[in-house]
Amino acid sequence: MAEQFTRDVQVNIPPLRLEVAAVKEYLIQKHGRTAGKATQHPQYANGVAAVKAYHKQAANMNAREQREYIDNIAKGWFFVEPSAETKPSNHRAHRNDPYSWPNWVLLNALYPGNVGQHRERAERIFGDYNISDFTAIYRQHHPRRGQAVAQAPVAAFWPHNIGRYSERQEQRQ
User: Do residues 68 and 18 lie in contact, with contact meaning Cβ atoms separated by under 8 Å?
Assistant: First the structure.
């Protein structure tokens, strides 16, 4: 039986905002860190990687997926528990639903190069398993503090993932 395609590829532009401050806020509220010490937490680097992965893919997500990703960061899903350090299948994003696009993006951020055994199935579900970089689109709408807004046309950066996914979905119908 063929897997059902359930991903709505109607992307949400401008994407919802998520910045590293959300990671710091989580560490301050849930782990008693002060603002100055949040960056020294052992899981901070995972949080930064997770936020950067969102920036890469926010322009390739619909509004529900963007909210899901942001909610997962707010719940601390960037934490890698000891039982999941070398085994992505033990991470709560994998246990929850490894084949939702937001969780796939998060797992790839936390385990770069270590989700290989799931790539074939992810390709069948998503049409592609690659996490392409569309940060330029995100930053057009949410520039860094002090950064000038880039005026490059969105079409120059348009996510090629979307086209491949849509074409494969149409071919299978």
Answer: no
pTM of the full structure: 0.80
Q: Side chain identity at 170, as an amino acid letter? A: E
- CA 78 to CA 96: how far, in whole Å? 14
Least Cα distance to 59 among 151, 128, 160 occurs for: 160
Cα 125 from Cα 1, distance rounded (Å): 13
Average pLDDT per consecutive 10 residues, the chain (173 residues; last block may be shorter): 53 94 94 87 96 97 96 97 92 88 94 80 80 94 78 46 43 41
* Distance in angstroms (rounded) separating the CA atoms of residues 60 and 137: 10
Residue holding tokens 């390709």?
A: 123
Is the Cβ–Cβ distance between 102 and 12 less than 8 Å? no
